[in-house]
Design a protein that fits this description.
The structure is a single chain. The chain is α/β, with parallel strands linked by helices. Helices cover about 35% and strands about 20% of the residues. It has 14 helices and 17 strands. The protein has a 6-stranded mixed sheet, covered by helices on one side. Strands 10, 11, 12, 15, 16 and 17 form a 6-stranded parallel sheet that branches. A 3-stranded antiparallel sheet has the order 7-8-9, with no helix packed on it. The longest helix is centred in the first third of the chain and has 22 residues. Bound molecules: zinc ion. Zinc ion binds next to loops. The site of zinc ion has 6 residues, from loops.
Length: about 425
């Protein structure tokens, strides 16, 4: 009998995973229009790592994306090897992806690493699905018209940053040669050119221009079809009966939402009348707005896990604030609620971060399941059931099938063991 209870959730989950694989994944995120958002995290002995990239339906494109990341990481690993400091070095990859005319896929990879100092790099790929080939800038833009583009870029930035534009580097990197414009993307209405950090300015810069304004140089046309995603308001949050005298724990899931795994966890929570806390990434929130709404509607809590999963302790005060507020806004836009808690990526915190939290609680954990490392549901379940105690905050990630499988088993098991499954804010309120 006992076996049956354990096997059943596995089967349910497998069925669920099977189904969601075939269902259409919507992409209401205006900066991630195409590809399945894929993320890996890793804690090395002297560095931390978060890599996000899209998996598209084009093998050739996926291959170069993954190879580019692999090469960058190889280079990072070589440089990080002798690094021995108390703070951890970091390797971070984020992306934007665009689809135009159901034909042109543009993927922009943003590389960021810090060992002794910050390094940033941008790499773009534009793929033509119809011709089954990659497009270079010269393929879409008439070389004879480069002087016009150079003038447009120059006047755009001169207007905004008059002082910085007099530098030699600025002039060199805006001159009418094609190598200045190799990092580009085709969005539905605009050509966007990316200038890496240290080319035009100290910071990275982008320049976008409507196709009609460069009609002499390109045959690209504005795609007018707009994707509209209405976010309905959330009503009727459940009222809960929590007994402050009985033991309670807070299950927490970082780095989502992922439609496939987060949904499976939400199903198990709902079935067991339980709650959890999801520390979502601002950059991913818009990928699954309905999943975020479901979290709130079904009594779970959403926390802020930054916008792009950078190690906040290595950023400037201004950039920490931006990482937090961008995530706050993207979650608010969907749920009409601002998160009250923040879990910094990798759990790294310092005084600057505390100042930037602006009254929101910084939450780490008391029980680390290491689910990202073991990737084995049975090990995770056994570890938690062995270690768990009253008022624990349990760290998991809704990024992996094994973590979702473990959660599906753990949720009823913890309840059976007498624990109320509450959100982090509820736990704090009753502690
Ligand atoms: Zn994380």
């Amino acid at each position: 009998m006992k076996n049956k209870i354990i096997v059943c959730p596995f089967l349910c989950l497998l069925l669920l995973l099977g189904c969601s694989k075939n269902s259409t994944v919507e992409h209401p995120n205006p900066k991630q229009e195409i590809g399945e958002n894929t993320q890996t995290i890793h804690y090395g002995s002297n560095y931390v790592e978060s890599i996000q990239y899209p998996k598209t339906d084009v093998d050739a494109l996926d291959k170069v994306i993954q190879q580019t990341i692999k090469n960058k990481k190889k280079d990072f690993l070589k440089r990080v090897e002798p690094f021995e400091e108390e703070r951890k070095a970091e390797f971070n990859v984020t992306y934007e992806s665009y689809l135009k005319d159901k034909r042109y896929i543009s993927v922009v990879l943003f590389f960021y690493d810090t060992i002794y100092e910050e390094k940033e790099h941008i790499k773009t790929f534009v793929y033509d699905k119809k011709k089954e080939t990659f497009l270079s800038f010269e393929d879409i833009y008439d070389k004879e018209e480069l002087a016009t583009l150079s003038a447009l870029v120059t006047s755009y930035f001169r207007e905004r940053f008059p002082q910085e534009c007099d530098q030699d580097t600025f002039r060199t990197h805006t001159s009418a040669i094609v190598t200045n414009f190799v990092n580009f993307a085709l969005t539905k209405a605009k050509l966007t050119i990316y200038f890496a950090k240290g080319t035009l300015f100290e910071e990275e810069a982008t320049f976008s221009i409507g196709y009609e304004e460069i009609a002499d140089a390109t045959s690209m046309k504005n795609e007018t079809a707009q994707v509209v995603v209405p976010y309905g308001d959330i009503l009727n949050e459940p009222v809960k009966n929590i007994d402050p005298k009985k033991p309670m724990v807070a299950l927490t899931f970082d780095d989502g939402p992922t439609r496939r795994y987060t949904t499976a966890i939400l199903d198990a929570l709902k079935e067991n009348n339980a709650s959890a806390t999801f520390f979502v990434l601002g950059s991913r929130a818009k990928n699954a707005p309905d999943v975020l709404q479901r979290m709130i509607l079904e009594g779970s809590e959403i926390g802020n896990h930054s916008y792009s999963h950078k190690q906040l302790t290595t950023l400037s005060k201004e950039n920490i604030k931006e990482e937090i507020s961008e995530a706050q806004e993207s979650i608010y836009n969907i749920t009409h609620r601002y998160p009250k808690i923040i879990r910094p990526p990798y759990g790294s915190k310092n005084d600057t971060l505390l100042q930037c939290a602006n009254g929101k609680k910084i939450v780490t954990w008391t029980l680390d399941t290491s689910d990202w490392r073991t990737k084995d549901a049975k090990t995770i379940v056994e570890y938690v059931m062995d270690k768990v105690k009253n008022n624990d905050i349990i760290l998991m990630h809704d990024l992996y099938a094994s973590s979702a499988q473990a959660a599906v088993i753990l949720i009823p098991k913890l309840k059976e063991a007498g624990y109320q499954l509450v959100t982090v804010s509820e736990l704090y309120a009753y502690q």
